[in-house]
Amino acid sequence: MIETDIIIIGAGPVGLFTVFEAGLLKLRCHLIDALPQPGGQCSEIYPKKPIYDIPGIPEILAGDLVNDLLKQIEPFKPGFTLGDPAIDIEETADNQFIVTTREGIKHQAPNIAIAGGLGVFIPRKPPVPELKEFEGKGVEYIIKDPEDYRGKNVVISGGGDSALDWAIFLAEGVAEKVTLIHRSQSFRAHPDSVQKAMDMAKSGKITMLLDAEVKSIGGNGELSDIHLTTKADGPITLNADNWLPLFGLTPKLGPIANWGLLIEKNAIKVDNSTDYSTNREGIYAIGDVNTYPGKLKLILCGFHEATLMVQSAFKRIYPNKKNVLKYTTVSGVNGFE
Amino acid sequence: MENIINITVVDREGKEHILEAPTDMNMNMMELCKSYELPVAGTCGGMAMCASCQMYILTGHVPIERSDDEQAMLDEAWNVEDNSRLGCQIKLTNELEGLKVQLAPYVEEDSDDDW
Which of B43, B80, B107 sits opposite A251 (nearest CB)? Predict the structure, then answer.
């Protein structure tokens, strides 16, 4: 059991900054995120895009903002459970919360801050009617262990980095045959990867089908056939052991919707007149995941919400302890040993 | 009215909404739809990095030419037609008076049992 003062669900910019504000009050934090790296959307969707509305910082790349936040919170030694989404919240008799992740890791604290942004990032699935039927029976969206594809006849769809990188990797002596299907002639992956895949297509290591799209799949229990249409040759059927549609990730509110919180328009309703508390005492929601009259989904608003929220969390933990607002200019930042 | 144009959006049920769109607020079609609470998610915030604001252009107002980022995204989206554009990449200007668009279908990208 991991024990802390505040469990932060979501390691995006707002979740990260919560560690700093909590640390100033001597509260310890542990962050949980479904993604394997901290930073949320800033790292996953737009690390190389500039942000212009962080006060006092005229321009910063989203990825750099995350790095700076990580540096800023380092003195407060936060814990991380990454690549593993929070699934369940239980409340104990002594007013503690236990948050369990998909992998079964348990975290205990008297307060939870949900800084879940748009929710959990999950794979984008193509609208192929038989998809569900073959999930885990040849269709996979995430490659957990490349060895699973040794000696197999693998078909990959997609034109981004993940599709190309895996096509290249699996074609280099892992899979028996690799076919890459993409809907256009151009790729949005890194140019080096595109060049490498093109070279491998020329030398016959990858079969590349461009201007092509999978329309349906079939098989007797296990996937065996992939039906696609191509601009050049019309409908084609391929034999395959595996189909890996790799179209990137999309956020979904997911398990957050099952925690007994008031949800409005895909966001958690909070009390913005006080402390961003939800309808469950001890559970707060901050950043893009919350909603209230006049809500703006801005990183800077999330920072403000986090700052007020930790004051409330402090009072819940130490109802009789005096606390005053300290200026970091005067007191500095005193981290944990 | 100055700097206000009329744009028709056909929603996924086929209902037409006539929207008054300001052209001096640096807005795009995705933001306009959201401001009228039409069901456009705009998940990526307008960076052409998701396709949740895909729409079909029904009148000749908007060039079907797409930016490179937009094209790359549409190459990986579903239900893409020749007249598909990402709403976030269509800036509201006075020339768009009378534009008519239709929202692309929702895609059920997942179900509840995915976590």
Answer: B43
